[in-house]
Every structure is written in structure tokens, then in C-alpha cells.
Amino acid sequence: MSVGLVLEGGGMRGAYTSGVLDVFLQNGVEFPCVYGISAGACNALSYISKQKNRNFDIFYQYVADKRYISVENLQNSGSLFGFDFIFGELAHELLPFDYDTFFQSETNLKVGATDLKTGKAVFFEKSEMDEAFTAVRASSSLPFISNIVIYQGYELLDGGCAMPIPLERSIFDGNEYNVVVLTRDRSYRKKNRPEFPRSVLRAKYGDYPNFINTMMNRSEIYNSELEVCRRQEKDGKAVVIRPSSPIVTGRYEKDPERLKSIYEMGVSDAMKQLPEVLEVLKKA
């Protein structure tokens, strides 16, 4: 039996996932394969490189830095998030990423992004990734506030558009058991209305009708994936770690103290469910 670790995205709500993963690192909890979407994929990098607190340091020290996230970035580069800074100076000089440990780790990483032509999720394994982590950048590139990322012949945007919670991909790959980290509390359901009118999507992404259809169906996609999580949890096939109370913050939160409190909730919730996680790992 194999156990997968599934990480939802959610922008700066990913501070919650950072807390969960630091508990895993502190307790030597490892998985054969991690499935990451958007912020979940970003968090997975430091988890696999075994750099406890690095994700916390990134958002706590740099979330208010214009190079990290700002309207100026959007005006100058077409992306609200400063990916060149995040995967450049930040990763190489300010909070150096341990590339050797990451690429030598036996833990695989599968990062999901949305293929604009098909409107479906496409996954990239660790062995396919470059040092600039272009696949992770693609997975984190939100529509309208990010540039389309070209990688391995694909035109890509945020993985959360097509598959926000990649549990079904993990099951498809043969992982009978999973640990799932969500960034929404148990009561959350995505409202049944498109985030953007079809006319607005057509104006920006008119060359990608399948992607537009995916965007129009995001609430249905998300809520159906939540249902898969609940069924797997009920059947004893998944441990689902989710915020114990609603995370009241925006996707682009820039208050370090607010993010710290979200991180601390992740630590607390993960500690409470750590025995369940360890129990399911025994089945691997």
C-alpha cells in the first residue's frame, strides 16, 4: 500500500499548510509522493527539502515586500506575484533553497497546472522540473493577474482552475490511502456562480474555449472534489486536515501577523491529528 500527501492551494491561506508541514518535518513524517496545487506546490518544495520554518520565514518576512506581491509587479511584469524574485533572489540568496536535498529526496512531487487548450489538469513530476521550478510557477499563475506560462509545449495557468484538490489524481496513481491538507474549513462550499462572467473570460482567453468552460464550472469542480475528500475520510481511506475555524482572509493577505495566526492554526490542527497521520502511514 502507498500513501499520498495531497495539498490544496489557496493563495496566502497556504500559511495554514506551512504550519501543517512543519509539524510533519518536526516529527519525521514523510510520504512517497506529494501532490501539490498552487500554494500547496510552493509549500511542498521546502517540505521535501526538509527546511522547517522556511515557508513561514518567506511569508512572514517578505509578504509585505513589493518584490513578493504588489500592483507594481502586475504593472511591470504582468503578474501580481513576483515570481522572478521568489524563485530567483529569494531562493538563492535571501532564504536559500536546498536544491540538493530536494532533488535527492526519495519523495516524489507531482505539481498540477491547468492546460489552457484542454481545460484539464496536467501534472509534472519532480524529475521533469528545472531549477527555476517553472512547473510550480505555472501552477501558481492565477488567471488575469499572471502571465500564461509556456512549459514542455503546454500553455498553463493555475492548477486550482481544473483540479484544486488533487486527491483523485493520487487515487488514480494507486495511492489507496491519503493525507489531505485543505485550506478551507469543514463548512465551506464554493458558491454556485462563476468568479468571472463568460464575456470577461472570452475577452482575455478567447483562444481557449475549453479553459473558459472550466472556469465557468469551478464551483462544481471544487465542491465535487470536497465530496471525494469526505467520502474517502468516511471510508477510512483519508486523513483530512482542515482549518478548525474559518480562515477569514483574502487570497492576497499582506499582514504578516494575520498570516502567522493562520500558520499557528495549521500547527495546532496538525498536532491534534498527528496520531491519525502516523496510523495511516503504517498501512504503507
Keywords:
284 residues; alpha/beta; 8-stranded mixed beta sheet; 13 helices; 8 strands
Model description:
The longest helix has 26 residues, at 256-281. The protein has 284 residues and is an alpha/beta fold. Strands 1, 2, 3, 4, 5, 6, 7 and 8 form an eight-stranded mixed sheet that branches. The protein starts with a strand and ends with a helix. It is built from 13 helices and eight strands. The chain has helices spanning 14-26, 39-48, 54-62, 71-77, 83-86, 89-94, 99-104, 134-139, 167-172, 198-205, 209-216, 218-234, 256-281, and strands at 3-7, 33-37, 108-115, 121-125, 149-151, 154-157, 177-181, 238-241.
Percentage of residues in DSSP E strands: 5-15%
Q: What number is the mean pLDDT? A: 95
**Count of beta strands:** 8
Write down the secondary-structure element order: EHEHHHHHHEEHEEHEHHHEH
**What is the share of helical residues?**
40-55%
Can you summarize the main beta sheet?
8 strands, mixed
* Discrete helix count: 13
- Are there runs of 5+ residues with pLDDT below 50, and where? none
Using the CA coordinates, give the radius of gyration: 18 Å
Coarse structural class: alpha/beta
Shape: globular
- How far is the first residue's CA from the last residue's CA? 5 Å
Brief write-up:
The chain is an alpha/beta fold. It is 44% helix and 14% strand.
